[in-house]
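dumping this here before i forget
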Amino acid sequence: MRLTFATDHPDPFITHACTWIATFAGIDLVPGDGPVDVYHGRDVTRPCRLRLPVEPGLSEEKPFPFDLFALLRTWMTDAQHTDLPAEAWDAHDRLRAGASRQAALGQLTRPIVNHALLSFRAACEATFGRPARRPLPKGKRALVILSHDVDDPVDPGEPRHALWSALAAARAGRPRAALGALRAAPTRLIRGLRDPGQHHWLFDATVALEARHGFRSSFYFAATPHFLPGGHPRDVPYDVAAPAFRRTLHHLTAAGAEVGLHMGYRARDDRALLAAEKARLERALGAPIQGGRHHYWHLARPFWPTLTEHAAVGLTYDSSLAFNDAPGFRLGAAFPFQPYDPTREVPIRCWQVPPMAMDGAWFYDEKCTVDQALADSAALLDQLKAAEGLGAIDWHVRASAPGNRRHARWAEAYGEILALLASDREVAVLPAAEALAVWRGAPS
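structure:
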């Protein structure tokens, strides 16, 4: 639907917000003079067919018409979280879910931005008597992305990768790291003999489990291990250049999975490191990558500079804006969008694919049961469908399939979630890059 539009408050934000309205609601607002279809302002005499009032600072839903642009600015620029106390953030600069505006409103898992846009779309369709386009595949009410962070995929009892790591560290001129990795090899061997049930290398099992339901997923591999230059102690303990990883990367893509980048802990502050990580993973894969997710969701605070760097190094999308400790939507939006940097008043030309839940949000709590996680997932899926949204599920590889006793609850829950998704004909399930392509280019 194409409508003429005028506002008394033209600025770069409103111009960019119109792209979100077009992307999600399927309504193209184009500048007009004189009488227009949609008017945003205080002039009650301005000829128009649909009038949006001006209500600065709007953050809660109310009956339409309301100031859609004020609501979008409040949520999509994270304005309501800029002045929170230090304890609202954890040690990795992630907003604690309980300290969020969403939690205060009791709407942690309800995508309030989606519902605001749906209200606007419904008003436009009623006013102008024609339907707006939908970005979801025909017959679907939601799109779910399956994704896996590859943090610790080497079996605890596997010593060979420790030997590879020692050699790689030595070649990189890091003798202490090489010695540490070398010392770890016999420890890992002994651990495997004592406890042979701890399997982390579950790539094939995860692909097979998803394939039984007709699903494929995205796997995010880190390219900077802690023992190589640029690494941080919190970075991963594996090297994608190792032969076993190269083979696995190729097997995954051959099976139709997506391979993306799990950005290192320091990459948020270093464009050169971020670019080097992307290039290193692409060399191991032998193909370009489109997007990824930050290790520990470790974005800068505020996160706009990090999001800007993604576009600078050639990433099409990122999927790092999330709550770590609870399911929900960090900016209240459950659809792909190009963010807006309120500090520089410019758009960011890299898509954000919103995560909606991570395995640890349930199972870091040892008391959480599989039934509880499944019930929460079903409720979250209902919220996503009501919002006609898109959201990503993040499940670590070591916990995605049976084979690891320590993560048995996690794997059982993931299998049940896959069955839940497969039983719902109103939900499409895809890897991230494909889901983004469908959303951007497949109107129904």
